[in-house]
Request: fold
Amino acid sequence: DTGVSQDPRHKITKRGQNVTFRCDPISEHNRLYWYRQTLGQGPEFLTYFQNEAQLEKSRLLSDRFSAERPKGSFSTLEIQRTEQGDSAMYLCASSPRLAGPTDTQYFGPGTRLTVL
Amino acid sequence: AQKITQTQPGMFVQEKEAVTLDCTYDTSDPSYGLFWYKQPSSGEMIFLIYQGSYDQQNATEGRYSLNFQKARKSANLVISASQLGDSAMYFCVLSGGEKLTFGTGTRLTIIP
Reply:
């Protein structure tokens, strides 16, 4: 059973450009989460999907951010018109659908974004 | 609102000694989960241990144990017989629903 994978691992872009990240969850995990981690901080929740449905979005997710999970498998996170403040590690996690707040989320290696 | 507090920004521990990483939390949810994750310098977040709010016994996973004191709202991680490979950032995490709330982390350095 392979773990969560993310692509690319690193991305350097110029301010104003659009970027897209991909996340492939553990197979048969129907919940997928995106988090953002800035230097020296813990990750912060951005959004999550149950299958293809996006069920919650954080206020951190501005209009420039959009996430999709079209077939309920992999997910993409796009940032339009990137700003230097978008520089961070973007982490993806997946979990199986169990009862209650006890689902363990398994994280991918992250995509480190640097906006110049 | 959910909150996690980790008061130890950094710790240095001699190899083979036990270490306790402190964590306190605050939540109004009657049912919640507490996790510890390890983040090495490579960046990947690695799940270590889980404790449910209704679990009667403290969780253990190999060298890791979670000292859960519900009345004090604390969930300290104990690592026995520390190893050089334990050097990493450690996050205490609270789950009251679908999303996780992370603490600011403790950077643990194991000294040979």
Summary: The first strand of chain A starts at residue 5 and ends at 7. The interface with chain B takes residues 31, 33, 35, 40-45, 48, 55-56, 58, 89, 91, 93, 100-110, 112 of chain A (CB under 8 Å).
